[in-house]
Amino acid sequence: MDEPGPDEPDWNYRDQEAWAELPDSRCGRPGEQSPLDLRGFPENSVWLPMEEVGHVVRLGPINRTVWPRYPIVWNYTWPMVQVALEDGSAGPQAQLLSPYNESTRVTFFKTDYYLQGVRFASPSEHQLDGVSYDMEAQYLHRARDGQVLVAAALLRVGLVPDNAFVEQLWAGLGRLGGGSGPATLVVPNPFYSGLPADRSLFAFNGSLTRPPCTTEVVWLVFRQPILVSRRQRDDFRQRLQDSQGDRLRMETTSPKGVIEPWTGPA
Predict the structure, then answer these.
(1) pLDDT tens, 112-134?
(2) Which residues fall within 8 angstroms of residue 200, CB to CB, at 6 or more apart?
(3) Dmax (CA) of the chain
(4) Which of 141, 179, 206, 264 could form a disulfide with 149 if both were Cys (CB 3.0 to 4.6 A apart)?
């Protein structure tokens, strides 16, 4: 995914101003950076009807005469996929293995982007109308030419049972840290059970949200949050706190919309 490799500069969330000084960094450049506080839909926005047929979900068309193709299409082959779960520079992340990372794709205005993996943040990095969420799932896609698209689903704690998709990913967390490398496991395809039922979204150009903050990234942020249990949220935060230390996003107060603040270690 976009995490620093072994030869790349180190960074942490405590000193984000230093990100701009890292080699080849594009962090902190005005007008280019994500995440954003997404507010309402502008007056010229277009509502796209959703259609689901088998393993395909389509938004659109806007006008079949003017625009013969569907603007956004999610398509997958297998409802279960194999992933490698590992600790990245900012926490656990799951990377799809072949052939699943070559057959799970979103087509955005005629370009195919293939799902490579999923990572999480807590609290959410994006906001909706000034409101933060307990967590955010970010699905990283790449086109054949290297162009990046990230689809983000906001996760909110509710009085609900454990989210089945999240729980199967979490089940592999206990296998990490044993010195045997990434944990390989089979989980539901994110396009099958990891995205909101309502696919209405914000689409915009931005950047990766962690160094080197690469720009010209397409973002799709879903408006409808996904509900997770309090235990799932807390288990993820504890995992980060135990393994990542000062890489954590440190919050001194609870962002609006987040049920409980996360101040991290004292």
Answers:
(1) 999 999 998 888 889 998 888 99
(2) 47, 48, 50, 222, 223, 224
(3) 60
(4) 141
- Six token digits for residue 104: 């799970």
CB-based burial of residue 256 (10 Å sphere; 0-12 exposed, 13-18 middle, 19+ buried)?
Answer: exposed
The neighbouring-strand residues paired with 206 are 217
Residue 133 and residue 39: Cα distance in Å, rounded?
A: 14
**Tokens 């297998």, residue located:** 78
| Nearest residue to 148 via CA among 101, 116, 189 | 116
CA distance 147 to 124: 24
Residue type, 259: I
Beta-carbon neighbour count of residue 95 at 10 Å? 18
Contacts of 73 (CB under 8 A, 6+ apart): 56, 57, 58, 59, 106, 107
Encoded tokens for 222: 């879903």
Query: Residue 249's closest CA among 259, 261, 233?
Result: 261
Residues in the chain: 266
Q: What pTM was estimated for this model as a whole?
A: 0.85
- Contact of 118 with 190, CB cutoff 8 Å: yes
pLDDT per residue over 50-99, tens digit each? 777 778 888 776 555 555 567 889 999 999 999 998 876 667 788 999 99
